[in-house]
Design goal:
The protein has 287 residues and is of the alpha/beta class. The protein has a single domain, classed as NAD(P)-binding Rossmann-like Domain (Rossmann fold), CATH 3.40.50.720. It is built from nine helices and nine strands. The strands form two sheets. A seven-stranded parallel β-sheet has the order 3-2-1-4-6-7-9, with helices on both faces. Helix 4 (106-134) runs parallel beside helix 5 and helix 8 (260-271) packs across helix 9. The radius of gyration is 18 Å and the shape is globular. The mean pLDDT is 94. The structure holds nicotinamide-adenine-dinucleotide (NAD).
């Protein structure tokens, strides 16, 4: 992909303080975009901006909780007034809650629905409205079907893979996939692209920061460490996911499974739903 691909573009990335969000911020900055790095952890977002500046890009850090409707309204308004309407928005911030549905309490559901689903809803509707009002364009791309802008929502292979180990997580990611498909249909006439990116396992901090229900504190620590080790063993770096995100924007892709297990699960969900139901019985974590 050309290093001048996003010259002059303004990109917003949520959850940009680590994992896929930081890698995506850097991949976009490397191709000429100005990156707004948003995260609930201000210091982490600021570190990302320092890294984008080392690449010669301009950027700014914002502290925002994507689950907080008022904070997201304020953030979207601040992006427009401090900068302008963004050309690219990557709704990436997400958390993991794993463990059986029968042990998943209302607070656990509210937390994961807040970040993984409401965060994507807020980011999509607030910035899509701005893009529609602007009615213009990714700089220098008048021939592109996503000339009016592009929204990327980070779902997961869990969106098409039911799992007894991750009922709350899978539910939020399936919803993000459907939301993205609906929004893509709605915005196509405005020349605004929407992509759902569905990665399999990748070595980020998600399991370290995650919640495991149905076990005591010691069990939770042990299982977090084990899940984190498994992600590292998979050895699929977030930078590769970021490259797929860049490619998805450039090519205006609708749904992008990332890495081998995501492709296999995506294909099986279409041709062999019975096999997916068998896989759903395996008590293993899926990010
Ligand atoms: N790592 C994987 O294997 C994997 C696989 C598929 C999908 N995903 C998805 O990728 C996305 C990024 O996850 P990651 O793996 O990079 O995780 P990560 O934990 O490494 O990074 C997530 C970032 O989001 C931030 N964040 C968390 N809650 C927030 C909130 N309420 N508001 C704003 N920022 C918040 C964190 O501070 C952190 O910087 C998530 O949506 C996740 O569900 C991850």
């Amino acid at each position: 992909m050309s290093l001048a691909l996003f010259d002059g573009a303004l990109a917003v990335v949520t959850g940009a303080g680590g994992g896929f969000g930081r890698a995506t911020a850097l991949a976009l900055a490397e191709r000429g975009a100005t990156v707004i790095a948003a995260d609930i952890d201000r210091a982490a977002a600021e570190r990302t901006v320092v890294l984008t500046k080392a690449l010669g890009a301009v950027g700014a850090a914002y502290e925002v909780d994507v689950a907080d409707a008022a904070a997201m309204e304020h953030f979207a308004a601040a992006v427009r007034s401090d900068h302008r309407v963004p050309d690219i928005v990557v709704n990436n911030a997400g958390i993991a809650v794993s463990g059986p549905l029968l042990d998943t309490g209302v607070d656990d559901w509210e937390r994961i629905l807040g970040v993984n689903l409401w965060g994507v809803i807020h980011g999509s509707r607030l910035f899509a409205k701005q893009m529609v009002e602007r009615g213009e364009a990714l700089p220098n791309k008048p021939d592109k079907p996503n000339y009016g802008g592009h929204i990327v929502n980070i779902a997961s292979a869990a969106a098409f893979a039911p799992s007894r180990a991750l009922p709350a997580y899978c539910t939020t990611k399936a919803a993000v996939l459907m939301l993205s498909e609906c929004l893509r249909g709605e915005l196509a006439g405005r020349r605004i692209g929407v992509t759902a990116v569905c990665p399999g396992f990748s070595a980020t901090g998600i399991m370290r920061h995650g919640t495991i229900v149905g076990v005591d504190a010691a069990g939770q620590e042990r299982m977090r460490a084990r899940a984190d080790r498994l992600l590292r063993l998979r050895n699929y770096p977030p930078e590769k996911v970021a490259e797929r995100i860049v490619h998805a924007i450039a090519k205006n892709k609708a749904v992008v499974p990332v890495n081998a297990e995501a492709h296999v699960l995506h294909a099986l969900s279409r041709i062999a739903p019975g096999a997916m139901r068998a896989i759903a019985r395996i008590p293993a974590p899926l990010g």
